[in-house]
Write a structure and sequence with these properties.
The complex is a heterodimer. Chain A is an all-alpha fold. Helices cover about 65% and strands about 0% of the residues of chain A. Chain A has 15 helices and two strands. Chain B is built from ten helices and twelve strands. The chains are: A mainly alpha, B alpha/beta.
Chain lengths: ~375, ~270
Amino acid sequence: MRTLRDLAPDQTEVPDSPAPGSAVEERVVPEKPYSHAPEPSEGIRRVGLGLVLAVLGVAVVLSVTLAVTIGPVYISPITVWQIIVSHIIGASPGDWTAGQDHIVWLIRLPRVLLAGVVGAGLAVVGVAMQATVRNPLADPYLLGTSSGASVGAVLVIMLGINFLAPYSLSILAFVGAVGSFVIVFAISQTGGRVSPTRLILAGVATAYVLTAITSLILFLGDERAVRTVLFWMLGTLSGAKWSYLGLPAAALLLGISILVLKYRAMNALLAGEETAITLGVDTQGLRRQLLVLTALITGVMVAVSGAIGFVGLMMPHIVRLVVGADHRIVLPASALTGAIFLIWVDVAARTIVQPQEIPVSVITALVGAPFFLWLLRWRRQAYGGQI
Amino acid sequence: MRLQVDRVNWSVARKQILRDISITVEPGSITGLIGPNGSGKSSLLRCIYRALRPDSGTITLDGDDLRRMDSREAARRIAVVLQEYPSDFQFTVGEIVSMGRNPHKGMFDRDSASDRGIIRDALARVGLAGFSHRNFNTLSGGEKQRVVIARTLTQQASFLVLDEPTNHLDIRYQLETMELVKGLGLTTLAALHDLNIAAAYCDFIHVINEGQVVASGPPEEVLLPGLIEDVFGVGTMVGADPLTGRPRLSFYLNGHTPLEAATTHHP
């Protein structure tokens, strides 16, 4: 049978231009539906996976090294590595002082590594949360996790809870974080389904309630403890020890491995809820897994570092600008970028007004929020600008 | 591949949306689903692509119950073009199209050379060869629709579901999309709001009103003034399309006499 197309005159070479002086031109973007030649590349996106990870990996190693050299006492990068290697292979001490050894191995290195692990963890959780609720503004604390952790931490500090010391703060912070997640998750379920919108609303409302409880305890409690609490709530990596590193590092590695294996399903979820179903993704099951995973990782991170904002929100966006939205690349790249970012934020936190320390969230917000706003201006076509 | 929907009921908040719906889509046909807004077209499609679970009734594909399949197997047999686009995240055309490989891939599988070949072929088939690295959000409506159709091709399913594929498209894109779908030769079920498009492209039409099938048959047997009056609440004059010879419909609101208008324009 002949088709409509066959009968129509061949128009493929004729650009459809409006008559002169007509007010038809309402499209902002000129459309070229029949030009099938590839367009010039769109900025710096679409760099190879291997190259991105290699560059970021080198940057992480450099950042760790330099961050350890920086402090009240400068220690050269070579000495830093000599000390690290001597501890790893158990070699006898070389030509560095016991003080330098102590500073590098017991004070700065665990702290820098913890900053890296927490930064990576929060960034990865940010990616997962944004996919889970299909909203680019989601962050690890969306489920009221940080407010729940704060309640736990405040209880420990204000009431002087001592059982399980010295880990009582971390443990109660973790319990608070996961507990608030359970509440939010339960509320956001309707008929066995979790809707992203309900999740966001339940998370925001629960966070308000928990923040109010924290404020109330603070208001009624001992004034001297308030400063400690405030510092914790704004995030800090001071007091990091090797013993704090194991659990967060394990949680990070486990989490990122599981998420990377699910990259196809996470991509499909970003394409749309029903689209994902038609592509063979059990969206409800996937969403549950992602939520439990993110709550646990966030809980572990908050327990060791306090609530550090902005990393989980920003890192995924910055990474997507360079590598696009494919989770196979976004997940590992976000982890490495988050690690680098938080390592340097922590360097700033402990050096800018030494010997005082600035809470980490103060810096992440001061640096992060303006950058984010600039990003929104710069990338106007992203985040709904095109639609 | 034959789709058989048998006495499907579905209700939400005590409102019955689908009532005892039974339809068949014959292998190789393009079957249209028409009906006014809220008639249950989309709900029926959603039951078929498993976004909704019917309260009762069965939906089978060549005799296999869709509900008994796991989600990946179902996705290897049914591909769907929805009206839903990713907007806030920056995917490339290639990434969107490669999502169609998801149901074929286990958790530890990586994209192979054959996957990349399938993706490339799919893009070429919809006329978008070389678009792989373009940002999806910068494409025109017609191009986006073709990208989504290319994605369904990489699913390698033999049954295609389309939910109002010509919605919001300029007339040229509408025709292009329908020609493309026709050229694929897949068993196709499409919800269509444009009755003239349905008349021009469908081999068979099911008319749905208030959650029930009220008529089924080839376009020329179904698209009759009486039925359209009952279902859509408008008057219709049916003629023959000068290009295709298929039914062509002109509509008027009740209370407005069409003959006056007709005589004014064609004295």
